[in-house]
């Protein structure tokens, strides 16, 4: 039987490659505004939380691929804060002399 339903004429959609899966699949529907709800079982299996940012890709065979995006906070520093960092990093004349002398050894 090849994993196919006995009658699949009603299931074939024009323009979508024909493929069949033997394992149980989760299904969802594309909403009127282009939104998709991911089934809870899939979210739980992947450990995805609400508000997770996802990257969306499409493959040449028509698949839509969702991947969790790495989102990291960005800190923006004022000129005054940058000056503080530079002041903290400044080395004394004695420290510079010691570094220079250790490079000569």
Would you write up a description of this structure?
With 105 residues, the chain is an alpha+beta fold. The protein has helices at 40-46, 79-89, 93-104; strands at 54-58, 64-68. Strands 1-2 form a two-stranded antiparallel ribbon. The longest helix is centred in the last third of the chain and has 12 residues, at 93-104. The relative contact order is 0.07.
Give the arrangement of secondary structure elements:
Elements: H1 40-46, E1 54-58, E2 64-68, H2 79-89, H3 93-104
Antiparallel strand pairs: 1-2
Quick take:
This protein has 105 residues and is an alpha+beta fold. It has 3 helices and 2 strands; from the N terminus they run H-E-E-H-H. A two-stranded antiparallel sheet has the order 1-2.
Features:
105 residues, alpha+beta, two-stranded antiparallel ribbon, 29% helix, 10% strand, elongated
Helix content: 25-40%
Largest sheet: 2 strands, antiparallel
Strand content: 5-15%
What structural class do the secondary elements suggest? Answer: alpha+beta
């Amino acid at each position: 039987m090849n994993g196919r339903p006995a009658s699949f004429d009603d299931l074939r959609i024009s323009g979508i490659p024909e493929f069949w899966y033997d394992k149980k699949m989760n299904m969802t529907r594309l909403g009127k505004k282009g939104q998709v709800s991911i089934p809870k079982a899939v979210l739980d299996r992947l450990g995805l939380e609400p508000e997770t940012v996802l990257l969306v890709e499409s493959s040449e065979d028509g698949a839509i691929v969702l991947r969790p995006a790495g989102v990291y906070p960005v800190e923006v520093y004022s000129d005054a804060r940058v000056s503080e960092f530079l002041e903290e990093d400044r080395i004394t004349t004695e420290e510079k002399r010691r570094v220079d002398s250790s490079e000569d050894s």
